[in-house]
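Q: Hi! First time doing this. I have a protein sequence and I read that you can turn it into a structure. Is that right? Here it is:
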Amino acid sequence: MARSVREQYDENQAAGRLRVPLAAWRWAAGSGLVPQADAGRGLWSRAVGEAADPEQVRAALRGPIGAGVAADRLTEALGEPLPILRPRVTAAAVGHLVKAGLLVYLGGDTQFPDVHPDQVAALARRRDLPALLDRHVPLGPDQAARRLGVRRTDFDLIAGRLGWLAPVASVNVDYKHHGGVTTIPLYDAQEIALLEVVRPSVDWRAVRTVTAGRRSPLVGLRPVAPGGDRVFLAGVARIARVGRAAVVNWRRRNPDVPDPVAGTDVHPQFERRAVVAWLLAHDKIEVPTGPTVASLALAGAGGATHRFRLDDPWLDLADDAAGEDCSSGWSTDDDADAMAELTAGEFGASLRRLTAPGTGPLAVLGEVRVIDRFRSGSGGLRVTLAWPTGLRGTAEGPAGGVVRHGVAYAGPGQACGCARHECGGVVPASWCAEHGDKTNPVMAWHPGGGLHCAALAQGRRAETEAGTAP
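A: Yes, that's right. Below is the predicted 3D structure, encoded as structure tokens:
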């Protein structure tokens, strides 16, 4: 009796025909080494099976790695130390990335799959990795609290009494001798990240810095009304950080703007979730992918420069020359200890360069000190540094160094070759007799962020007192 010829193969049959591991065939199909299934879902034609090169398929695999190892490598890619608003990537998250088509399933438990190390490395190099994780990986309550930067009790308020979030899925966890199987709700990470945007009236800094055992700032807020989570035009404007007139124009020019669900013609009310979806789709708002970061370079008495990172920085610059500037941010215990040691000397430390969002690079000649180390209820450590405002200057170049500049009352003389600063101030040249030099400028501080030329300022004051000033 003639032996029948198979006309199509599933993945097991294709791997068997080539005498390669099943994982090797899966990787060949997922990476494009062999064509995609062409005879139906998960089925390959005879022509594809016969055309495949067994040696190439076998060599391409290079050995899969487990979900736990893959999760550790993706966590490392998020930053070291891990940013304050980023939970670790878990083995279960790798399963969600496989479901999203970002990784190829090579075997093992479908929830905790084996994957290709090269593909994990390529994913780790992607600049949009944080956004991909938010889009495709749901979070449990503890992870969600970490992503939002709040205590677990505060997150329970948000998802429970306030009703701002609803689970999108759940997972059963078997604690065996500690209570058996427990159902854990999972929340959309992108919705969690957007909370800070869609709830602009909440003082999120206060929520994140509340200490353990203290009453949450969220307790006094009203839960979502039984009729739904609604927002007025002014509320939409606050979410998008525009004026109310801009929202009115959007409604007039875009027919796909969500219709009001309540209110009046003058004061319509919109369903918050629908409005947020429209704002996202039209690039009116963005999903925060993590905390902003400040970098600083401190030099102690020995002169060596040490670099640190502050997550979610807060820079408070005084407008009085006799005042004090402060900068705070989340730090690791080791970095906080190192900063405290550097600034503990009689003259504190010098700030070679502070790069923070919203301001130009700053530098401070000395007397920088750690004035506070605050442990939040969620376990994060926030460090605050301070220095005399009068010592503040502008950092010059990537290596730091202080350039102190100022807006002169009168224009520089013909012999002056000082450069002009971005704000309109004068940056002293090293040989300028009129303005001093970069290290010791003949200038006095002013609230605009730079320095006035002391000689010109004194002359101006003298003219004013004598009544000869124009």
